[in-house]
Design a protein that fits this description.
Elements (H helix, E strand, L loop, with lengths): L1 E5 L8 E5 L10 E10 L1 H8 L8 E2 L3 E9 L11 E5 L8 E4 L4 E3 L6 H21 L7 E4 L5 H12 L3 E6 L2 H10 L3 E4 L6 H12 L5 E6 L6 H6 L1 E9 L13 H7 L2 E3 L10 H17 L6 E6 L3 H9 L6 E5 L1
Parallel strand pairs: 9-10, 9-12, 10-11, 12-13, 13-14, 15-16
Antiparallel strand pairs: 1-2, 1-4, 3-5, 3-7, 3-16, 5-6, 6-8
Length: 327
């Protein structure tokens, strides 16, 4: 089978498509023919060395496909089932092995490419809006990168929970997408000379000077200071990524001076800790897709031999919605 592997950290060109043996499922695993693989920022961090991983490293954590073989003890799937997964290493491949903790049944009526695009970003958007800071009708949230994969899903889930959503974007096309997802106001940070100074002023002008209850920040280094300054007293900054770079260490006394703020750095694994929690999140997401209440935007698809282009587009912020690889 074909698999995308990195032998040493580097640029998008460090990825190589290689022929490797097709894996065989253990007693508690299933072998899946991959229909589509999701591309995520964590893949670029692992490829480039921002997140150190053992080398050579098979890339990819997310996808969807059809069960091809099942182990002797498997009771969570059967041959022919449509399944999706999040967190399974080596998912940029034609076949993957899954255990029960990684495998989500894709219901009838949900396209496999959509399922692949939904997993990591959808589960992230769900735990952020339902658990990290559970949104309700009295809340106003600021969502950075509002036209990105997480941003579009998070905006829709937040609005469905009754919250008001303000987003940041960099172009007029992205502004239109963010508004379609339900954002009540969109801030164009590309027009700022200083995000850390001008973003808080823009947010407070939209909130009668109060600021927002929560900022969901997947951008990181360039937005962190502005995010913190955009919060109400006792507000929360949920820093869930660093597409612009990682946030350097900072003085915790800043949180006190700013208004007894909270900062959290959530990780998806801690929000998928039990089978019950995994089922709850996946069922809500797939249910929303089937009902038409959650739109999963696939911005662009790439074949395996153009995976480097996919990473370059994502890192260059030239994408909207989800980027997908097709084996």
């Amino acid at each position: 089978m074909k698999q995308i592997v990195v032998h040493s950290p580097g640029s998008p060109q460090a990825m190589q498509v290689e022929d490797v043996p097709t894996p065989q499922p253990a007693a508690d695993q299933v072998l899946v023919d991959v229909a589509a693989c999701g591309v995520n920022f964590i893949d670029t961090y692992q490829r480039s060395g921002v997140y150190p991983v053992p080398m050579p490293h098979p890339l990819g954590l997310e996808g969807a496909g059809v069960v091809r073989e099942v182990g002797a003890d498997v009771d969570f799937a059967t041959v022919g089932d449509h399944v999706a997964w999040a967190g399974s290493r080596g998912s940029y491949a034609e076949q993957v092995l899954l255990g029960a903790q990684d495998c989500y049944r894709v219901p009838e009526g949900v396209d496999l490419t959509v399922a692949a695009a939904l997993m990591l970003q959808g589960l992230t958007a769900h735990y952020l809006s339902a658990s990290t800071f559970p949104l309700g009708a009295d809340h106003t949230a600021l969502v950075h990168a509002g036209a990105g994969g997480v941003g579009l899903l998070l905006t829709q889930l937040a609005v469905a929970r009754g919250a008001r959503v303000i987003t940041t974007v960099s172009t007029s096309d992205k502004e239109a997408l963010s508004r379609e997802a339900g954002a009540s106001d969109v801030i164009r940070y590309d027009q700022f000379d200083s995000v850390s100074d001008e973003l808080p002023a823009a947010v407070r002008s939209l909130t009668d000077g109060a600021g927002v209850d929560v900022v969901y920040d997947g951008v990181g280094a360039t937005t962190f200071d502005g995010s913190l300054a955009s919060l109400k007293p006792r507000g929360m900054l949920a820093l869930f990524g660093g597409s612009s770079g990682q946030v350097p260490p900072f003085d915790l006394q800043r949180l006190s001076r700013a208004g007894s703020m909270y900062v959290t750095r959530p990780s998806m694994g801690h929000y998928l800790a039990t089978a019950e929690e995994r089922s709850w999140r996946a069922e809500e997401l797939f249910g929303a897709v089937r009902s038409g209440n959650l739109n999963v935007r696939i911005g662009e698809t790439f074949p395996f031999d153009r995976a480097g282009e996919a990473h370059a587009a994502l890192e260059g912020r030239r994408t909207t919605g989800k980027v997908v690889l097709i084996p």
